[in-house]
Specification:
The complex is a heterodimer of chains A (112) and B (111). By secondary structure, chain A is mainly beta. Chain A has no helices and 11 strands.
């Protein structure tokens, strides 16, 4: 089975802090994604990557950056955390664009 | 990507088949139909996907109409652990393959 592991289930940070969310997949998938999920808004794509060191903006990249130095790891960075970034963050990976995405269990991030 | 329409909620008796409908009348020829579910406090779980043929795996069956404008996810013998929000999504699988999750159907399996 595909395993997508997010480093933390719950995280509390302060406004202005630099926050790192880590995601690791164990299936040698080419594609990796970061979404955030908010009540009433569904899942929204922040960034995705289709290869090491490659990244593309999703629908809501403002305030975020990403890093993919190794194929199995995709990091989401909140440069200067703000309260409107309080959300559930979900990482996903897929082998090929038409193959299904497999999700981690999410990180519930609170910015105080 | 095409938009989907699902009923907001449905109940199902434990042990019975659950049939979840999805309308995607604006689907285009290269778009796949994906089904995911999300149990509270967990990430979405992939269930099944298809292009135009019916599909079956260990979790469910997917029936796609001939004109591809609608589909039905069938859980053959619902259990209490199938209680979740079920999402029907269509996507072309183009670069990025963004999945757009709508409101989904909240399924409650009752004993």
């Amino acid at each position: 089975d595909v395993k997508v592991t997010q480093s933390s289930r719950y995280l509390v940070k302060r406004t202005g802090e630099k926050v790192f969310l880590e995601c690791v997949q164990d299936m040698d998938h080419e594609n990796m994604f970061w979404y955030r999920q908010d009540p009433g808004l569904g899942l929204r794509l922040i960034y995705f990557s289709y290869d090491v060191k490659m990244k593309e903006k999703g629908d809501i990249p403002e305030g975020y950056s990403v890093s993919r130095e190794k194929k199995e790891r995709f990091s989401l960075i909140l440069e200067s955390a703000s309260t409107n970034q309080t959300s559930m963050y979900l990482c996903a990976s897929s082998f090929h664009p038409r193959q299904p995405q497999h999700f981690g269990d999410g990180t519930r991030l609170s910015i105080l | 990507d095409a938009k989907t329409t699902q009923p907001p909620s449905m109940d199902c008796a434990e042990g019975r088949a659950a049939n979840l409908p999805c309308n995607h009348s604006t689907i285009s020829g290269n778009e796949y139909v994906y089904w995911y579910r999300q149990i509270h406090s967990q990430g979405p779980q992939y269930i099944i996907h298809g292009l135009k043929n019916n599909e079956t795996n260990e979790m469910a069956s997917l029936i796609i109409t001939e004109d591809r404008k609608s589909s039905t996810l069938i859980l053959p013998h619902a259990t209490l652990r199938d209680t979740a929000v079920y999402y029907c999504i269509v996507s072309s699988g183009a670069a990025g393959n963004k999945l757009t999750f709508g409101g989904g159907t909240r399924v409650l399996v009752k004993p």
